[in-house]
Amino acid sequence: MEPEERFETPEDAANDPRILVFGRLLGAANRLEFILGAAIEAEAGIDHSLYELLLIVARAGDGGIAVRGIAQSRVLTSGGATRLVQRAVAKGLVSRRTCPTDKRVQLIELTPHGSEIVTTVSVIHARGIERYLLDVLTADQRVVFAEAVRAISKNAAAALPVMP
What we know:
The radius of gyration is 19 Å and the shape is globular. 68% of the residues lie in helices and 7% in strands. The chain has helices at residues 10-14, 17-44, 48-60, 67-74, 78-90, 112-134, 139-159, and strands at residues 65-66, 94-98, 106-110. By secondary structure, it is mainly alpha-helical. Strands 1-3-2 form a three-stranded antiparallel beta sheet.
């Protein structure tokens, strides 16, 4: 949108194709998170945000991940990430240890219980993703969709400021 571009009416603004596609993206993501999150909670008794935390920690591997890395990945403040980690620690899903090279940094790692939750719940989560997201697309659309989401995510991550 050029700086001098203006919408003539609220309806024009609301029906702009750029705004519509973003609204549809958010709406689809919110609906899918509700549906898939309910399945995660029913299976494991944890909410979707805790499950996503476990996935972030699992992707980090054996070395663990700093709370700041979790904050940046989840677009949370460091305080928000700390509270999320505290909830996971209280449930026995993750543990903390001091970074050997920087004593100010706490590294977060999966516990055996957290590892079990990730592997068990991910089967149900993957089936839900297939049912509600992938099965409505053709094979070609799946490839294009995956590439588009990756590009959008990478672009947004690059534009994101360091979370406080």
